[in-house]
Design a protein that fits this description.
Length: about 120
């Protein structure tokens, strides 16, 4: 999550997009693009859903992993602190980062399995 948060801060600084000014229900400071809640939330919930799915093999876990960041993101537009494009970008960056984490997880997991198999062989 630290990687997602740090990347989000870097992207916000690079783009420097101001937040919406009208119809705010909350006051937020900092830049708007991409949405940190959408990005970090998507990374967290999707990766957590992936890990839980690996163990329990229930499809509703994956659906929940997509639904929670989507609802979180909608709430940020509703309270007026993000444009829809901020949310879409945050969700997209979060999904890309999550896919990267899944690739790393699977490669490390496969490597660990190969090491386990090699320990059982006679030398």
């Amino acid at each position: 999550m630290g990687i997602s948060y740090g990347l989000n801060l870097g992207l916000k600084s690079a783009f420097g997009r101001e937040r919406p000014l009208e119809n705010r229900l909350l006051e937020e400071d900092g830049f708007s693009f991409p949405s940190g809640n959408a990005m970090v939330g998507t990374t967290f919930y999707l990766f957590a859903a992936f890990l839980l799915y690996q163990r329990f093999q229930k499809s509703w876990i994956l659906w929940l992993g997509v639904l929670l960041p989507f609802l979180l993101s909608l709430s940020r537009v509703y309270v007026g602190v993000h444009y829809p494009s901020d949310i879409l970008a945050g969700f997209s960056f979060g999904m890309a980062l999550c896919l990267g984490l899944i690739v790393v997880y699977k490669s490390l997991n496969n490597r660990g399995t190969k090491i386990q198999k090699n320990k059982n062989t006679a030398v």
